[in-house]
Every structure is written in structure tokens, then in C-alpha cells.
Amino acid sequence: MCYSARDCANINTVWASLIIEECSRLGLTYFCVAPGSRSSPLAVAASTHPLITCIACFDERSLAFHAVGYARGSHNPAVVITSSGTAVSNLLPAVVEASQDFVPLLLLTADRPPELQDAGANQSINQVNHFGSFVRFFFSLPAATDQVPARVLLTTIDSAVHWATSSPRGPVHINCPFREPLENSPSIWMPSCLKGLGFWMSSAEPFTKYIQVRHSHVCNDTHGRMAEVLNVVRRAKNGLLLIGAMHTEDDIWAAILLSKHLSWPTIPDILSGLRLRKLLAFSELEQEFIFVDHLDHALLSDSVRDWLQADVIIQIILLNSNRIIKCYTQQLNHLFLGIVWSTKMLTRLVGRGDGEQLEIAFLEMLTSDVTVDLNVLGAFMEDIVMSNVDSTTIITIKRSGSGLCSIHVSKEPSKLDKLVGGVSKGMILSLGTGTGNHILLLATP
Do domains 11-195 and 209-443 have the same CATH topology? Predict the structure, then answer.
């Protein structure tokens, strides 16, 4: 199945069709629609989607309780679409019940654009955090525009559905402002906002898929999903390694060993501790590596940008990369794998998972230092976030009491426990695609 938003008449239609399509790919195919003018783009997109069942009702309160009943019986979130203003408020009783009973719902509420807020516009109220603590997730999208990358819509939907279906399950709310024209009338919009969605539009998979992994399934399921990404790394013809800020000697050695293992050009961040290569005291040792210290300067050349077309990029640690490198990597159609290890264990994913947000801070750290073996780490694994790939791999870091020993990319899952001697102070892995998609392997207590 292929999907294309390029045939949409205007930007409202583009945004609405992307939202509805992503819901469908995530398995949300039961829509409860309370018709209204402002929600027309969403309602039309849902009603014309071939895989979606729409139930229409003018009474939002009754419709919302119907959605609760469906979700409770099917154990799958129902989607509720309403217009703006009091229509949103009418959902509150059902939202409270869904929250208290752990029933998953996705609320898509249309809204007026910012210029109509607090300006006396009809059915215009403050819908930001309208349901307070009764929703597991809230996000207010910007008014539909071709000046914002469309992947923002997909990552928002993916994150919302993840929160709705993860323990504790419950309702989630996405606010969707639309400007006129609300109907399907032709209006010029720039297809450049769809940049980076080529792979998504050519597939039938969600932009980001969150796969729940419990301890009893780790050995059976997790390892079986590792082969595909491993194969991607092995097939890489033009790999590139980006190294972010390092704070310990162990971390620096880990990055060095990975660079040696891959034999890829390595781009060290200014905070990586690798610009001067003080740990590589012998010149013959440094000759085993390909360090590029000033890629940002080189990328100012058109010929360098045309030549350096990486097909796989591995990023270590949250990267404080400068604007030029960041823009370069976002424009590539590559597979992106990020590896994050820290002296602090990750607790939860607190961001939408947009590719741009990876460097900003959607990972929350604990202050406790821990040492875990493979079995304990397996018990901690709660989420594997997968994006447009069928499988995952683990790049394992083996440590001893005296520090880091070696790095391995596991090829045979059955031998994974032989590769890992212990993961000191919390090694967290993150995988993903550079078009905005990504995978995160979170170790959470």
C-alpha cells in the first residue's frame, strides 16, 4: 500500500489526511465523529478513508460515552473527533470515566487558530490542557501550515497512542487548529513540508511503532527483532559515526572502540573529548581511525555535501551538534541509529519522539548509579520504539571491574548473553531512522 498527500487540495486537507492515515496504521479504525464546521477536515478525511468505520452523532456527550464503551469492549482506542468550543467541554464526563477506568481514547479536537483566540470568535475557548490531569498525554498542534514539517503530526499521533495504550491506559488529547478554508477547496501549499516522508508514504507502517516488551517475552521476542537492523549496519556502504558529549573516560573509550569496530568516518563533537585524541597517545593507534574534526566547515562546500551521502548514521550520546551538521543529517535519506549510555538510568520517554527532539531532551534521567547483568537488564526493558523497520539489534558494551573491555554488535541472539559481561552504570540504547523516525531501547526500572 502506498499513500500520498500530494494530491490534497489544501494544507488543511494534507494535515487531516496525515493524522487519519497514521491513526489507521496504528490500528485505530473506529472513529466517533461529532460533526462541526471547524472539524470538517478531520471528519472528511476519516469518512473517506477505506479502512475506517465512522459513527456520527450530534451529541458529543453521548458520542464520547459510546467511544468509551467501544474501547472498553475491544481493548483498542476509539478516536473521537469534535469541533471547537463547547463541543470539547461536552467530552469531559466520558474523559473522566475513561481515565478512572483505564480506558484508552484518542481525542482529536478541532480549534480556532491563535488569531481568533480571545477575540470574540464564535465557539472559541481555551482548549489547551482542557481535560487537565484526566488525560495521559496532551499536545496542541500549530495551526495547519506548510511551514512546519509534516512529520510533527505523525510523531505526535504515535506518541499519543503509545501513552493511551501503555500502563496506565487512558484518554489522550490532541488539539488541532485549522484556518479557513475548511472545505476541500484548492489552495496553494508547498510540498516541501512532506520532506522526509518518502519511506513512510511508500509503506503501510506507522512512522514510529512502540512495541511493548515484557520480561517473559524478552528472550522470545526481543532478540528475534534484532537481525534486521544488524543487517542494515553490515550492509552500510557509506556509514558515518557522530559522537556527542562525553563525560567519563569509560564513555570516551567506548566511543573509540565502536569507531574502530565500524571503521567509519567519525565526527567528534566539540564536547566529546576526542578532538585532541589524548587517549590515543600513539600515532600508529590513531591511524586505525578516520576522524573528521571540522565537518561543519567542510559542509559549507557544495561538492563535499554532494560527495558525503551517508546511508547509515550512528550517533552516540545526545549530540550538541552545530546547525550545519544537524541540517545536513536531516536532509539525508539514511537509517539513523542512536546509542545513549549514561551513568544515570533512563526512567521514561517524555517527548513525542520527533527526530529533531532527540538532541533536545526528551529523556529523563535518574540520579542513581546501577550495575546490571543481562537478565536484570532484560527485566527492565519496557519499551522498544521502532520506526519503519521490522527488527532491531543491540550494540552491546562489555565492561569489567576495571572498565570497558569491548563492544559487540550481536549477530546471534542466542549468544547475546555470552557477549555481555555486565552493563555498568546503565547502558541505554537508541535506534532510529534519520527521516525523523527512530527506535529507542529504554531500560526502565
Answer: yes
pLDDT at 362 over 50: no
Instruction: Reply yes or no on domain 209-443 having CATH 3.40.50.1220.
Output: yes
| Residue 371 near residue 424, CB atoms below 8 Å | yes
Taking CA atoms, 14 is separated from 48, 51, 178, in Å, by 14, 18, 11
349: which 3 cell numbers? 520517554
Closest listed residue to residue 8, CA positions, set 108, 131, 118, 153: 153
For domain 11-195, the CATH superfamily is: Thiamin diphosphate (ThDP)-binding fold, Pyr/PP domains (3.40.50.970)
DSSP 8-state class, residue 48: T
Average pLDDT, the chain: 71
Give per-residue pLDDT as tens, 269-292: 877 777 766 555 545 556 667 777
pLDDT at 258 over 80: no
The Cα–Cα gap between 332 and 134 comes to 40
Contact 81, 46 (CB under 8 A): yes
